[in-house]
Amino acid sequence: MGYYLIYFAILIIVPLWAQLRVKGAYNKYSKVASSSYLTGQEVARRILDDNGLYDVQVQETRGHLTDHYDPRSKTVRLSSANFHGRSVAAAAIAAHEVGHAIQDQQEYAFLRFRHALVPVASLGSNFSWILILAGMLMGAANLLLLGIIFMAAAVVFQVVTLPVEFNASNRAMNQVVQLGIIRNDEERETKKVLNAAALTYVAAAAVAVLELLRFVLMFIGMNNDD
Fold first, then answer.
1. Buried (b) or exposed (e) across 47-64, using 16+ Cβ within 10 A?
2. Active-site residue (options: 42, 60, 97, 211)
3. Which of 13, 116, 165, 185 is deepest in the core (most CB within 10 A)?
4. How many folded domains does the chain comprise?
5. Average pLDDT for residues 146-172, to the nearest whole number?
6. 99-138 confidence digits (pLDDT tens)
7. Which parts of the chain span the membrane according to its record (predicted)?
8. What is d(CA 171, CA 186) in angstroms, rounded to the nearest whole number?
9. CA distance 102 to 171
10. What band does 177 get if pLDDT is binned at 50, 70 and 90?
11. Considering the chain, what percentage of its residues have pLDDT values greater than 70?
12. How deeply is 176 buried, as exposed, middle or buried, from its count of CB atoms within 10 A (0-12, 13-18, 19+)?
């Protein structure tokens, strides 16, 4: 009983802690104006142009922290607060998303691998739980194993996301420093925003791996009982 309490506590606390870190860092540094006083849109455009990515668009999108890069339409989409914001946080997030556009331009291997995994991971996320629950309820080890295989595809996607996100953040830091978008004394604050955002991906991957391991152990136990 104690094991399960610890297990479920980890599943709840780790993602919650990561989300609180992101919100805390973002809320703090979204109130600190960057020395360049550029909006997130201007930061993104400057980095894109400096890297010859004139065909990549920068658009405003709805929502809070919904910033992302769409490789299909070659578009960096920034949430309204970051699109118009002139803060250290807005600059960091805009630069991070442009980091993905640069990865796309340079055909970064992990990004390509992640894109290739999207349909498989989507299938795994949608069907793994159905198969796992069916296997558990029916005591069918084969169904449980099939569910584990589907889940494993989704977990691989989560794990591959880590180097993609960390690499985009490293590119972002290099760009904002080289182009003078932030001063030396702002590097620490910028890194805090980027590192906090990265924690959400680390937490998601850790929880996914833990869940997968639990079902693998369940499958082994089911076979041993037979």
1. bbeebebeebbbeebeee
2. 97
3. 165
4. 1
5. 95
6. 999 999 999 999 999 999 999 898 888 889 899 999 888 8
7. 6-22, 116-137, 143-164, 193-220
8. 16
9. 8
10. very high
11. 96
12. buried
State yes or no: is 187 an active-site residue.
Answer: no
Return the structure tokens found at 129: 């739980």
Distance from C-alpha of 209 to C-alpha of 215, rounded to nearest angstrom: 10
Q: Smallest Cα–Cα separation from 184: which of 8, 21, 18, 36?
A: 36
Instruction: List Cα–Cα distances, 24 to 10, 40, 89, 196, in angstroms.
Output: 20, 19, 11, 9
Range of the domain at 162: 2-225
Q: How many whole angstroms from its chain centre is CA 68? A: 10
Q: Position 41: which residue type?
A: Q
pLDDT (0 to 100) of residue 7 = 67
Segment 181-200, tens digit of pLDDT: 999 889 999 999 999 988 89
d(CA 133, CA 4): 18
